[in-house]
UniProtKB/TrEMBL annotation:
HAMAP family: Tlp
UniProt-annotated location(s): Spore core
Induction: Expressed only in the forespore compartment of sporulating cells.
Region (Disordered): 48-83
Pfam families for the chain: Tlp
Membrane-spanning intervals of the chain: none
Compositional bias of kind Basic and acidic residues: 48-65
Organism lineage: Bacteria, Bacillati, Bacillota, Bacilli, Bacillales
Record's compositionally biased regions (Polar residues): 72-83
Key words of the record: Sporulation
Family according to the record: Belongs to the Tlp family.
The protein's name in its UniProt record: Small, acid-soluble spore protein Tlp
Listed NCBIfam families: SASP_tlp (TIGR03090)
């Protein structure tokens, strides 16, 4: 039995847009969580605050990745350049 599974080519053409959407969604999650703070008790408030801090760290990392991907796009990245 022979398997002809081949990996998909590295398609980075829309990574910037995907990352931007992820940043927007994460910011929306932070806003939603902040709205729930008014109904949360002490322990739940601490959990929400900690999670929002992790979200902010993720946003920062995603923004850095957006810069990297944008730079790669400007430099003419394609699959053959990645090898």
């Amino acid at each position: 039995m022979t398997f002809n599974n081949k990996p998909k080519p590295d398609d980075r053409s829309d990574n910037v847009e995907k990352l931007q959407t992820m940043v927007q969604n994460t910011m929306g999650n932070i806003n939603d969580a902040n709205e729930t703070l008014q109904f949360a008790d002490g322990e739940e408030r601490a959990k929400i605050a900690a999670k929002n801090e992790r979200r902010k760290e993720s946003i920062q990392a995603m923004k850095e990745e957006i810069q990297d991907e944008s730079q790669a796009r400007q430099n003419g990245f394609n699959e053959t350049n990645n090898r």
